[in-house]
Design a protein that fits this description.
The protein is mostly helical. Helices cover about 40% and strands about 10% of the residues.
């Protein structure tokens, strides 16, 4: 598992953009993409999307282990 500090600036931008688009891009009646600050979403779907994004960037632990620095 990589840590966030190992990500490039470009990777960080892509992650944030993906989250923004997932949460706030919707389609109008003509099928065009629009920014929709009131778009409704399911908490479970958001969690699934976040897990997918973290996986794409190797930010998911491969196995169970103790967290460093936490007693």
């Amino acid at each position: 598992m990589r840590g966030p500090s190992e990500l490039s600036y470009l990777d960080l931008q892509r992650i944030v953009e993906s989250i923004q688009r997932y949460l706030y891009i919707d389609r109008d009646n003509a099928g065009r993409e629009i920014w929709a600050p009131d778009k409704e979403w399911s908490g479970a779907d958001v969690c699934e999307h976040l897990a997918h994004i973290l996986s794409l960037h190797q930010l998911v632990p491969e196995q169970s282990r103790l967290v460093a620095g936490i007693a």
